[in-house]
Amino acid sequence: MAIARIQPLSAHLHPPANPADSDHQEKNQVYTVWMKSLVSNGRGCTIYGQDGRAAYRVDNYACRRSREVFVMDSSGKTLLKLLKKNFGVFKTWQGYSCCNNGSATLEEPWFRVQKEYRILKKKGQYNVRAVVQIILSGEVYRIDGTSHKSDYRIIGAGGEVLAEIRRKQTDTGVALGDDVLSLTMGPTADRLLVVGLVVVCGLLDRCI
Question: For a 10 Å CB count at each end of the chain, is N or C smaller?
Fold first, then answer.
């Protein structure tokens, strides 16, 4: 069994940019994403909170490239079901909100993620690596960043940055492995949605 707790994040690693932004920064939530399953020899990922305890996890056991993935809380309760759909050459992941028994609460998916194949980079901007459609509201989000790289951002329908993902660093500034990431969520972000999108990115990059 893999460890269920890691060292809490040091507060000085994410200081506010200036005193005027301190209230905003205090509402940000910082997580550590480890692209490892809590199950020995399993495939998945574990997301730890600022207290160092596991908050979300994905355990696909020994399966590779599964077409059905479940996001759970630390106790094993299913929160989100991810299904892979093929539409010709386009591969799409659909997310369904789940109830206590793991069944979807809605017939229609909550969101749909499609990898962006035509990437046009604009000067000073990230590449668009995936497009996210929120089904019920019709809003379109995007995931910006180079494909197969650890650093990327989740951008809301209004252009606001909902979350940023980067390789985690130690207190001395040493970058950890590609499978250890730091996830910072903004105060307006839907936590479960962001977690689901981070998991989908791992699936698209074949890390899970």
Answer: N
Contact 132, 92 (CB under 8 A): no
CATH number of domain containing 147: 2.40.160.200
- The tokens describing 148, both together, are 């197969």
Full residue range of the structural domain in which residue 22 is found? 11-204
State the alpha helices, DSSP H only, in the chain: 22-26, 191-204
Q: Residue 81's closest CA among 107, 63, 49, 62?
A: 107
On whether residue 4 sits in a domain, the answer given is: no
Give the pLDDT score at 180: 92
The backbone torsions φ and ψ at residue 20, rounded to the nearest 5 degrees and listed phi first, read: -65, -25
Q: What gap in Å lies between CA 120 and CA 144, rounded to an integer? A: 11
- Determine the length of the chain: 208
Which residue is it, tokens 């940019």? 17
Tokens 């962001």 found at = 194
pLDDT digits (tens, 9 = 90+) for 150-195: 899 999 999 999 999 999 988 777 788 888 999 999 999 999 999 9
* pTM of the predicted model over 0.90: no
Structure tokens at 60: 């696909």
- Of 6, 99, 78, 104, which Cα lies nearest the Cα of 47? 6
